[in-house]
Design a protein that fits this description.
This protein is an alpha/beta fold. Helix content is about 40%, strand content about 20%. The chain has 14 helices and 12 strands.
Length: about 375
C-alpha cells in the first residue's frame, strides 16, 4: 500500500503543473484558463527510497521494487461547486476515494496568469475550497438523517450509532468546522469512515511559489504555515514550475540544478514525506536475490498485519518474522553477517514493526 492523494484547489493555482511534475508525465493539460482538467487524472509514482538501493546492492537483488502512490489531479473548484457550479459534484466524488487531500494554494504573483478571484490570497482560497467541501458534506449528511432516524427508532443499534455520528458531524459543519474535528471512539471509527466525508480526510497545504521563493517561502506562505500550525495540518512549499522543469533531468542533473536555487531535494520528496507523516505511514523491506522491495504500512501495525500487505495468507498463517534492522543489515553486510553477529531477531505475533525493518515471514500455508 502507498497512499492516494487528491490534488485540489481553485483554477490556475498550479495543480496540473504540479501533477505533471509529480508523475513525470504530460497527461494533465496545464493551461492558463479554468477547467483545463476535464477528467480527474490519476498518476502513479514510485516512493524515492535510497535505502532500497543499498539493500539491493548488498543482496545482489535482480529487481528493485519501490512502494508506489497515486496522485489524483482534480479540476479546479470554484464557489458553488457543491451546488454543481463549474464542474461540480463529479469531481467532489473523486475526492472521497482519496486517503488525503493536498490543497494547492497560489502563493505567487504573476500578472500574466489570471486568478479566478482577481487577487492572490491563499487563506481566502483555502477557505473557499474548504467551504465547498463542507457544504457537500453537509448535504450528504442531511440526506441520511431521516432514514437513520427511522431505523434507530425501530431499534437498529448500528443505525443509532451512525445517526449519533452524523448529528455530531452535522453540528460541526453547520458551525463552519470540518468533519475531521469530530471526536469518535475506537468502536465508532469504522462507522465514521463509512460516511466518506470530504472534510474528514487529512489535509496537506501545498504553497505554490515562484522559483525565487522556493527555498525560503514568502509572506503568503508564512500566513499558510501559521494556519497549518494552528490546525495541526501539514504544509510544504513547492515551486510547481520548477518541479516540472527538473522532472525530466537525471538524478545528477537534478542535484546540480537544485543546488543553484538553494534546495536540497525535489519538492516531490518533501510532499511524499509530508503525506507519509500526515497519514502515519512507515516502510519495511523484504530483501533477497530475486528482489528487494519496500512495503508501506501504518505505524503501530504488528508483524502479522505487515505480512498481510504481501498476501492475506501470510497474515492468516503467520508463525514468526525473522527481523533485522536496516542499520544492522547495512553494518554487517547483509543477512548472513547480521545472523553471525546475533542481530537477527525472531519476532512473534505481538511485535510492532519498526521503520526500516528488513523482514522475512514464516507462515503456514
Amino acid at each position: 500500500m502507498g497512499f492516494r492523494c487528491g490534488i485540489v484547489g481553485l483554477p490556475n493555482v498550479g495543480k496540473s503543473t504540479l501533477f505533471n511534475a509529480l508523475t513525470k508525465t504530460a497527461s494533465a493539460q496545464a493551461a492558463n484558463y479554468p477547467f483545463c482538467t476535464i477528467e480527474p487524472n490519476v498518476g502513479e509514482v514510485a516512493m524515492p527510497e535510497p535505502r532500497l538501493d543499498k539493500l539491493a546492492a548488498i543482496a545482489r537483488s535482480k529487481e528493485i521494487i519501490p512502494t508506489r502512490m497515486n496522485f489524483v489531479d482534480i479540476a479546479g473548484l470554484v464557489r458553488g461547486a457543491s451546488k454543481g457550479e463549474g464542474l461540480g459534484n463529479q469531481f467532489l466524488a473523486n475526492i472521497r476515494e482519496c486517503d488525503a487531500v493536498a490543497y494547492v494554494l497560489r502563493c505567487f504573483e504573476n500578472d500574466d496568469i489570471t486568478h479566478v478571484e482577481g487577487s492572490v490570497d491563499p487563506i481566502r482560497d483555502l477557505e473557499t475550497v474548504e467551504t465547498e467541501l463542507m457544504l457537500a458534506d453537509l448535504e450528504s449528511l442531511e440526506r441520511r438523517v431521516g432514514n437513520l432516524e427511522k431505523k434507530a427508532k425501530a431499534g437498529d443499534k448500528e443505525a443509532k450509532l451512525t445517526l449519533d455520528l452524523v448529528l455530531r458531524a452535522k453540528a460541526l459543519l453547520e458551525d463552519g468546522k470540518p468533519a475531521r474535528l469530530v471526536k469518535y471512539s475506537t468502536e465508532e471509527r469504522k462507522a465514521f469512515e463509512m460516511l466518506q466525508l470530504l472534510t474528514a480526510l487529512p489535509v496537506l497545504y501545498v504553497c505554490n511559489v515562484n522559483e525565487s521563493d522556493a527555498a525560503s517561502g514568502n509572506a503568503h506562505t508564512k500566513h499558510v504555515e501559521a494556519r497549518a500550525k494552528q490546525e495541526h495540518a501539514a504544509c510544504v512549499i513547492i515551486c510547481a514550475q520548477l518541479e516540472a522543469e527538473i522532472a525530466a533531468l537525471s538524478e545528477k542533473e537534478q542535484a546540480e540544478f537544485l543546488a543553484t536555487v538553494g534546495l536540497n531535494e525535489p519538492g516531490l520528496i518533501k510532499l511524499i514525506h509530508a503525506g507519509y507523516d500526515l497519514l502515519g505511514l512507515q516502510t519495511y523491506f523484504t530483501v533477497g536475490p530475486k528482489e528487494a522491495r519496500a512495503w508501506t504500512i501504518h505505524k503501530g501495525w504488528t508483524a502479522p498485519q505487515a505480512a498481510g500487505v504481501i498476501h492475506t495468507d501470510f497474515e492468516k498463517g503467520f508463525i514468526r518474522a525473522e527481523t533485522i534492522s536496516y542499520d544492522d543489515f547495512i553494518a554487517f553486510n547483509g543477512e548472513n553477517g547480521a545472523k553471525e553477529a546475533g542481530k537477527m531477531r525472531l519476532e512473534g505475533k505481538d511485535y510492532v514493526v519498526r521503520e526500516g525493518d528488513v523482514m522475512h515471514f514464516r507462515f503456514n500455508a
